[in-house]
Amino acid sequence: MPASTKKIVTDVVDNLKKIPSPEKKGETFWAYLKEQLYSESPWDKEDLNVIEQEIDKSLDSLDKKDLTELWKNTDKGWEKFEADKKVDDKEMKSDLTDEILGQVMDRMDDHYVSRDSFFPESTVYERSSKEEVPEEKPDEEAEPENLDDEDIKIDDDDLFNDEEFEEDDETHY
């Protein structure tokens, strides 16, 4: 199975859940990181290094082909690839680490909704040819397109009903 950033992010998160918290016994490093996120305190470089080390372990297990494909699917990677910039494995891993680190951090936020959902995509169902398709009725509220002045026929009497105005004038005096 080809590598994907989503799979690597999941593996990194799972590994961070196995590492003990540096502060509280019985808690995981992942829980510790989430507490830091919600406390809005600055990130400790050592904590970020732990995450990056887990990412590096996952990237080190990839062969050159998978690493290159994964890298090309990142914004930085695609830009460099399109520009025909020569990049070595170290630079590819650095770009991927930045990308994956961001996704791991996003995963910490319980309220974050990713553009790449971690849930399976909904299945698209097609209507069988035997079923009748209900006829769509035009929306009466929708504005017609491409109307010329000739197509619009408005009678002044429809707009300005004098009887209605006369009644209003009499009642206000």
Report a brief summary of the structure.
It contains eight helices and no strands. It is an all-alpha fold. The N and C termini lie far apart (85 Å).
Describe this structure in words.
52% of the residues lie in helices and 0% in strands. With 173 residues, it is mainly alpha-helical. The chain has a domain of 104 residues.
Key words describing this protein structure:
173 residues; mainly alpha; 8 helices; elongated
| Number of H- or I-type helical stretches | 8
Based on CA atoms alone, the radius of gyration comes out at 31 Å
Helix content: 40-55%
**What sequence of helices (H) and strands (E) makes up the elements?**
HHHHHHHH
Mean pLDDT, nearest integer? 76
Number of strands: 0
Q: Compute the separation of the termini in Å.
A: 85 Å
**How does the overall form come out from the CA principal axes?**
elongated
**Spans of 5+ residues with little confidence (pLDDT < 50)?**
116-133
Q: Structural class, from secondary structure content?
A: mainly alpha
- Major β-sheet, in short? none
- Percent of residues in beta strands: under 5%
Summarize the helices and strands and which ones pair or pack.
Elements: H1 5-16, H2 29-39, H3 45-60, H4 64-72, H5 75-82, H6 89-108, H7 156-159, H8 162-171
Helix pairs in contact: 1-3, 1-6, 3-6, 4-6
